[in-house]
Amino acid sequence: MEGRDGCSIFSFTELHRQLRDHDGAILAIDLHHIEHACIAMAFFLHALFAILLDKMQPKPKDYIHMGHFLAALAFAQELLLFHFHSTDHMDLEGQYHWLLQEVVLICLVTTLLSIWMPKSFMVSYIRSLGVILQGLWLVVMGFMLWTPSLAPKGCSLRKDHHAHDMVTKCRDQESLDRGRALVNILFSCILIGVMVFGVGLYLILNRALGGCELREDGVEGDCQMEDKQAFVCEKRFAPIDLEDL
């Protein structure tokens, strides 16, 4: 529900401005706003259809795979639009976008794997970490690209001659190379932080929910969280699917 509302608000903020010229043509300088709105709309439709499928619960239960497929389409569209973004990919903003594409690709691949392995805990867990990393990187982009005091040495936030927006530009190639290196280091630090968080949370969950598992014949056996999404442990929890939570 929150994701659907967030996508709606984001789409409105991108499309509320004047996007057409006097002759009715879409302004080239505002194309990136429409691209951002298309990305948000894809995730809005995924959230909306996922809610409808959960309410209707059609038989057989393959609607879960349909939800994964819709999410994969949304990530694929996001990757496509960021790869062929209408904004400049040559400066610092382009470096942020290139790294963002790698994170989106992880989300896309793990979502596609979820269609094939819907009960795989690790696939769902890695996809969740990918979404967290993507959200963190988008927030970092917002602060680093449009906060003048955070611009790298030799770069500054100024008006772009080809767009209405303020962008971070570097005065020479040396400053640009230094800025790109700092962006790579920043991304690496955030990635390491997500890795530590992911492994730590996994160990906590494994310790809290791990233990023994009831096999189909009712005999207790060893339980590994990555083997199946069935937390049938010492507390005798029933097998569950993440999509049912």
TrEMBL record:
Keywords, in A-Z order: Membrane, Transmembrane, Transmembrane helix
InterPro entries assigned to the protein according to its UniProt record, in alphabetical order: DUF716
GO CC list: membrane
Subcellular location: Membrane
Transmembrane residue ranges: 34-53, 65-84, 96-117, 129-147, 181-205
Subcellular location, principal: membrane
Pfam families linked to this entry: DUF716
Membrane topology type: Multi-pass membrane protein
Recorded family membership: Belongs to the TMEM45 family.
Protein's name in the database: Uncharacterized protein
Species of provenance: Carnegiea gigantea
